[in-house]
Amino acid sequence: MTAGRPWLDAAFAAGAVPAAFVPDASGGRSDVTEVAGADVVEGATLAAVPLGAPSWTPAPVTFVDGIQRWAVVGYDGVVPLIHAYVAAAARRRGPDRRLRTVAEASRMAVITSVRELRPAVRRALEAGAETLIDLDDVEPGQPGRALTAAGIRVERLREGVEREVAEPLAPRLGAEEWLVIDGVLSDSTALATHPRAVGVIKSHGAQYFTGDELTRALTIPAGHRTSVFQPKRHGRQPVHSWYLRLWPWQGHDLLYGLLRIEVRAHADSIRRADAVGAWLSAERAPLSTPDARFDRLLYPIHDVETYLRSRAPGDLTGSRGSRLPKTGT
Amino acid sequence: MSDNPSRTVVGRVVATELKPATPHQFHFWTARDTAIGIGAIVRVEDPTDAARVVFGVVTDAFAYSDLATPLHDVVSADGNPERAAGAPTARQEIRLWTAAVLRQFPEEPLQPVPIGQVLVATNADVAQALRMDVYLTGAHPTGIPVGLYTSGGLEAPVYLDSDFLLGPEAAHLNISGISGLATKTSAVEFLLASIFEHFPAHRGRVAALCFNVKGPDLCFLDRPGELTDEDRRRYERLGVTPEPFRRVRYYAPFKPDGVNLNTLRTHPDLVGDVEPLVWGLREALDFAEVLLNKDDIDAKADAFIDFLKDRVVGQDFDDNFGGHHRVETFADLDALFRAILRGVEDSGRGDMWRTHHVATIRKVRNRLSNISTRCKGLVTDDGAVGDLPWGAFEDRSVYVIDVANVDPLGQDLVFARIVSKLRERLEHRNLGVDVIVVFVDELNKYAPGDGPESHVRRMLLDISERGRYLGLALFGAEQFRSQVHRRVVGNAGTQIFGRMDADELATPGYQVLSPATKIKLATLPVGELMVRHPHFTQPIFVRFPRPVVLRGRDGVERFPPAEDLPFEDAIVRQLVRMDRRLKPNLVKDLVASREPEDVRRALAAVRRARPDDVLAYFRTALGSKVAADVPRERLAVPPLSPISEEPY
Predict the structure, then answer these.
(1) pLDDT for B232-278, tens place per residue?
(2) Across the interface, do B87 and A289 touch by the CB < 8 Å criterion?
(3) Which residues have CB under 8 Å from B56's CB, separation 6+?
């Protein structure tokens, strides 16, 4: 009996073969990967702007992040049966500087090429799975293609859950309350138009500048931001953005300690860029170690992830070693 | 603080491979703000089995954050501690507690603690967890309140089982802690009051005999001290009446002058309650081995002393040289020795007297004659005796023997004789009470773990090992438990710890305690104690109200000891105690120019007889003054024959 997953038992009974393979879990929402451009909206050219000591830290602030876990739990022939879990949470930081959960949501799903399944297995999944996602665009073949496609489905599923958590919060924010989302704002109208919503992007797949501007953007010193710019061809909604360096990159990597910030595309956002940038710089403490992304991962976001990971199903967690009991401990 | 709060969930059991839950220990976490602390009793409920409940006591606590290494805190604050404190987000922290299992329901099969919710204990939970329900209910409850459990937001009375505190199942109590901070004496005073009020009727009569071995500690047990409202509330909660001991009798030897009492309870308003503790030859001879060291007592001397005890003292005795003796006092004994030695010498028939060699007799004479000198004030030459009311000990009474200012030899004699008499009387069930508590402070001095063997230590060991069968319970106190004889502390069924010295806590005897429990012991506030009792599987912390009696220090301030009186005034005071109508001047006239020894002997006679007419008896005992013979002037007697002037 597979605890909590009777659909899987039914699938096995119908001829599917058990498997256990956990792909690397996503650490969070990635930036858009296309080559894009941007219009500088603060000043004539992109410049490095020094940030002073933070003069203001909003209180309260709500931080939103999501996680995804997925694993191949069986095969019907060569068709992988993928079990996915996605979750998102919003944790609010009050005057006591401690985070408490104010909203959360999660989804369980089975992802597979439904049409390739034997009828009995298909019937078992359709009857029992909470959500069945069909990899309808994947041709039969090596399971690698299906896994790649499944990863994208899982990511979309997670993005949906994140929006499900974050969007209802935006209109309910207090007058002084801010909302910080791990990832882009631009794919949500509710978030991208909110005056106190901030997107924090850690991965930098998209290229917005070339030449000297690119050099300036990627080599800004610690404690500096770039001029505010508006990315082109980016998401559904226009946003204003700037780069922010939390830690010195010298001796590490160009992207070390580099964040890209998204806010509402509005003149007020430009006016407040220094204050918001200084505030977010201050969020580098406490350090979010032992996460390897600590140079860009704000501690409250790390906290939300920790919260979500602690509530995720254990059987979808990648195992770093033998799960046999350790001897001599 | 609540008497009986409703059960609220305060935590949850966690078990990992490195920190698993076992049948004897488990771990749980709580919110940062929690009433739980070291010593708190908690209840764990099995989410899958409502009948399964585990009680535990918190023994250790951990707090940590998700900080990977201290260096990361330095880095994130740029090396500035002030900035670290100003970080926008406070790190996640945990309050992780370790608890030792007190009791499981059901008790079989014994299994690891379930991973369930943790709740604060209620009154009923505390009783169950400590197995007090066994002796607090039924036809003959035997609970003796020892203090209030005050952790986890609860205040619940904690009871000791009389059968395990005073016998017969187990007995004895040992209390240790730093002088002045551990409140050892106060704890014993409160516990005695509690025993007197709650000692089960079916166990008979109980009394306490306390040796006051330092200062004025136990000199004011009948005088009320000051209590706060909080103390009174605790007394009420514990069901103990906040009043001083109703019946206290004090005993103290005399000072070497033989008339002033050797105690700090000599204030004129109080000294009347102090009975002299004075022993004579017979009492001293019974415990000669206490007073004479091993070098003195070889087999021959021992045989001769036995001969004196069995055949001489208190009997009409013929010394074989034509002398008749009746030896009642040291003075009589010395007269006998003189007669024997002179007789042997004069007879010229060798060096033996009744199979005893003269050298042995001389040696024993020398040693015994010195006893009344070495223990002056306690042992008298004249045979006067002032003693405890053997056979008439009263229920719920305290007998205080003040030996604080008595020299060590005298203390040895007092301990040895009183404990021996108690044991003897209890064996014959004719002490007057069925159970007696003997309180001895400073066990480091009287029952040390090392050092030469002493009679007092042997007596204390004997009580520890055999007292419970007799109804003789030893309440011992000391500063360093590790330095008290192992069998004395080991036989104590109940052990109490006040604030402890850190060095003492580092000794092997405390290895069973967790580091957190040791720290709590090292910082215990006044009035809080840790209790170990046979029914409790783990040590429990309790608070007790301050004793209602006047503390020794306060007592000597309120009742300053009187200066030693001149000989005549001291005699007057003692006689006036027996007859308040007595006119001091009459007494002074009587004793004027009399030998002090005669006066003391007469006073002792009055004390023994307790006559109606004290003055008349004293006068009779003193006898008439024998005037010194003044040589009469010799009259010249004329020679029968006139002496001629003729020289030839």
Answers:
(1) 999 999 999 999 999 999 999 988 888 888 999 988 888 888 988 98
(2) no
(3) B25, B26, B41, B42, B44, B99, B100, B101, B102, B113, B129
Distance from the first to the final alpha carbon of chain B: 123
- B403 and B502 both lie in a single domain: yes
Residues B357-412 have pLDDT tens digits of 888 888 888 888 778 777 888 888 766 678 899 999 999 999 999 999 888 888 88
Asked if the model's pLDDT at residue A317 lies above 70, the reply is no
Which residue type, as a one-letter code, is found at position B473?
A
B609 and B573 housed in the same domain: yes
CB contacts < 8 Å between A and B, how many?
Answer: 57
Residues B54 and B27 in one domain: yes
Same domain, B545 and B406: yes
Residues of A in contact with B87 (CB under 8 A): 97, 282, 285-286, 299
Q: Does residue B630 lie within any of the structural domains?
A: no
User: What size, in residues, is chain B?
Assistant: 648
pTM of the model: 0.81
ipTM for the predicted complex comes to 0.81
Quick check: is B643 in a domain?
no
Cβ contact (<8 Å) for B89 and A287?
no
CA closest to A59 among chain B residues:
B88
Longest dimension (CA), chain B: 142
What integer is the mean pLDDT of B493-522? Answer: 92
Residues B407 and B442 occupy one common structural domain: yes
Confirm whether B381 is domain-assigned: no
Residue carrying the six token digits 């008349």 = B616
pLDDT of A35 strictly over 90: no
Domain segments of chain A: what residues?
6-315
Residues B268 and B394 in one domain: yes
What tokens were used for B171?
């007995």
For residues B44-68, give the mean pLDDT.
93
Nearest residue to B565 (alpha-carbon basis) of B337, B260, B317:
B260
- Asked whether residue B545 falls in the same domain as residue B609, the answer is no
With H, G, I as helix, E, B as strand and everything else as coil, classify residue B391.
Answer: coil
State pLDDT tens for residues A97-107.
999 999 999 99
Q: Is B110 domain-assigned?
A: yes
- pLDDT bracket for residue B605 (50, 70, 90): confident
- The whole-angstrom distance between A252's CA and the closest CA on chain B is 16
Q: Give the domain range for residue B115.
A: 1-69+93-121
CA B553 to CA B549: how far, in whole Å?
12
A28 — pLDDT class (breaks 50, 70, 90): very low
Taking the CA of residue A300 and the nearest CA in chain B, the distance in Å comes to: 7
A93:B84 CB<8 A? no
